[in-house]
């Protein structure tokens, strides 16, 4: 006997409705205009931010004859830097793009977490209530014991009461301890639930909704590429520089320390670093007015020369550098640009929050080592290295933190950059090279053949001891006297080693064999009218 069709349909409805709802929900999610995310396919990291490139294949949406597709980018993206292009020059073309902030609803599991959090807080409240009750019980009997009258007729009853109270108080303290342990466990669970809930409902879950409007022959799906900048990722250069004077060389290792805090994990992303980000201004700068007029001179103290300040800054110590990490065995290829260079690091997977270090170059550079001494300023010999790289292998290096080592022994951390093929680096003072300054003469003379004239004489002896096991080259410097009045006459006195004069500096150059010393003497004398008061510049 066949079942009537009406009966079959009525039996089918209860089974069909739940399945239809699930199917409708799934179709709604697929064809809904809600934007979708894509995993980055390429990233270019700059010193201050990163350029993210993503690819999308999106279903075309049509509303009243207007075609569009939608996708989402992270809320941390700089929306003004967004660029969207189609992957094919055939079919549809982009006519306009809009970007709007979209508040994402909490994930479905957020409600379950809220319910669980409420239950845990209720349990904690119950434990705290019992602790308060036990504390009140203890306080009551402790107060009662202090006010109990001590008479002979109630001594026995007081003792019995005391034993009972003692037992009750001990039990209350034990119960408080157990409940405090329970509260600690509940607090730990509450913190974990709150952390998960914050991740699901936090502001970082907002996003930029991008709508791309298109024109042309409709396509079932549109392939797009989008690029944008984010400020919470990038890289910084770090270096390890090991000087080897005995071999006239130094080892220079260049690393790229990358950071990724975008909130999205990168899976097999092609990473490139750029030594600088081009700054593009859309409009030319305005011209300033050219005004020529009298000025009021302001007295200023004489500053040190730029050259001396630069050398002193190279000698100065700087903040510490991050720890080393291993890098890939192969060196990234360099691509020279118009205003900066790029280095391809290859394909990598990087989780959000990770900091990684990649090896960019491991270089062995020839160098000329010299000990710079300035006895009038400090009794120390500073080791300097003038780089002498092969011209075809020289590459400019951006400013970054560097660890300086001498024969693999740590010297200091300070900033380093290399833009000059003949860069000069300092590796601190060497205790195996001793410098001694002795004043031979420092006096005034107003009598003798130069009657009617005043005279002042200086004389010094410098001794440099080489306690090292190899020959060293030394460059000694001192300030040359600068005469600012033609009535003041200067006389110089140098021994066998004559200095070179450059930029008001005296420069001596000499070599010292291992275990030997070098001594040299020099001095000055000035004569000036007896009616003149002269400043000797602190000497």
Task: Detail the topology: elements first, then pairings.
Blueprint: H1 5-31, E1 40-45, E2 50-59, E3 61-63, E4 66-74, E5 77-86, E6 93-102, H2 109-147, H3 155-201, E7 207-215, E8 221-230, E9 233-244, E10 249-260, E11 266-274, H4 306-315, E12 333-336, E13 341-350, E14 355-373, E15 381-387, E16 397-406, E17 409-418, E18 424-429, E19 433-445, E20 453-466, E21 472-479, E22 489-494, E23 500-502, E24 505-512, E25 517-529
Parallel strand pairs: 1-11, 9-16, 14-21
Antiparallel strand pairs: 1-2, 2-8, 3-4, 4-7, 5-8, 6-7, 9-10, 10-14, 11-13, 12-13, 14-15, 15-18, 16-17, 19-20, 20-25, 21-24, 22-25, 23-24
Helix pairs in contact: 2-3
What percent of residues are in strands? Answer: 35-45%
Count of β-strands: 25
Structural class: alpha+beta
Helix count equals 4
Instruction: Outline the biggest β-sheet.
Output: 10 strands, mixed
The shape, in one word, is: flat
Question: What is the N-to-C succession of helices and strands?
Answer: HEEEEEEHHEEEEEHEEEEEEEEEEEEEE
Point out poorly predicted stretches.
1-33, 296-329
The domain tally reads: 4
Rounded mean pLDDT is 78
Based on CA atoms alone, the radius of gyration comes out at 40 Å
In which range does the helix fraction lie?
Answer: 10-25%
Distance between the termini: 127 Å
């Amino acid at each position: 006997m066949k079942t009537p069709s009406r009966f079959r349909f009525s039996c089918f409805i209860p089974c069909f409705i739940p399945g239809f709802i699930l199917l409708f929900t799934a179709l709604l999610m697929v064809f809904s205009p809600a934007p979708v995310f894509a995993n980055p396919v390429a990233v270019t990291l700059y010193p201050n931010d990163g350029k993210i490139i993503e690819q999308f294949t999106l279903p075309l949406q049509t509303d009243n004859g207007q075609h569009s597709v939608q996708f989402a980018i992270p809320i941390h993206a700089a929306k003004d830097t967004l660029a969207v292009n189609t992957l094919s020059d055939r079919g549809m073309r982009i006519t306009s793009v809009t970007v709007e902030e979209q508040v994402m609803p909490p994930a479905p599991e957020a409600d379950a977490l809220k319910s669980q959090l409420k239950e845990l807080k209720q349990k904690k409240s119950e434990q705290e209530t019992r602790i308060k009750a036990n504390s009140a019980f203890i306080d009551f009997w402790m107060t009662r014991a202090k006010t109990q009258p001590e008479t002979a007729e109630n001594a026995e009853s007081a003792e019995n009461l005391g034993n009972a109270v003692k037992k009750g108080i001990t039990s209350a303290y034990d119960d408080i301890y157990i409940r405090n342990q329970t509260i600690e466990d509940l607090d730990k669970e509450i913190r974990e639930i709150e952390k998960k809930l914050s991740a699901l409902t936090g502001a970082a879950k907002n996003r930029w909704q991008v709508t791309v409007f298109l024109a042309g022959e409709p396509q079932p799906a549109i392939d797009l590429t989008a690029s944008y900048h984010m400020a919470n990722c990038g890289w910084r250069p770090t270096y390890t520089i090991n000087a080897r004077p005995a071999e006239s060389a130094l080892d220079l290792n260049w690393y790229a320390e990358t950071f990724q805090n975008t909130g999205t994990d990168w899976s097999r992303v092609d990473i490139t670093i750029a030594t600088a980000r081009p700054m593009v201004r859309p409009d030319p700068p305005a011209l300033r007015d050219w005004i020529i007029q009298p000025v009021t001179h302001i007295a200023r103290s004489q500053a040190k020369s730029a050259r001396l300040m630069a050398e002193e800054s190279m000698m100065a110590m700087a903040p510490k550098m991050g720890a080393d990490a291993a890098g890939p065995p192969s060196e990234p290829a360099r691509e020279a640009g118009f205003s900066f260079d790029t280095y391809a690091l290859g394909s990598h997977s990087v989780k959000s929050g990770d900091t990684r270090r990649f090896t960019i170059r491991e270089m062995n550079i020839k160098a000329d080592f010299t000990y710079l001494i300035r006895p009038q300023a400090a009794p120390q010999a500073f080791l300097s290295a003038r780089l002498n790289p092969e011209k075809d292998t020289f590459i400019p290096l951006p400013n970054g933190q560097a660890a300086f080592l001498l024969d693999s022994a740590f010297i200091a951390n300070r900033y380093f950059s290399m833009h000059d093929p003949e860069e000069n680096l300092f590796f601190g003072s060497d205790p195996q090279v001793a410098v001694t300054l002795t004043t031979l003469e420092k006096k005034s003379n107003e009598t003798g053949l130069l009657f009617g004239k005043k005279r002042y004489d200086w004389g010094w002896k410098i001794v440099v001891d080489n306690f090292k096991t190899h020959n060293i080259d030394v460059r000694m410097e001192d300030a040359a006297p600068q005469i600012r009045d033609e009535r003041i006459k200067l006389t110089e006195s140098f021994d066998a080693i004559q200095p070179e004069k450059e930029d008001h500096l005296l420069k001596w150059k000499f070599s010292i064999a291992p275990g030997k010393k070098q001594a040299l003497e020099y001095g000055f004398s000035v004569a000036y009218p007896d009616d003149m008061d002269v400043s000797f510049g602190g000497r």
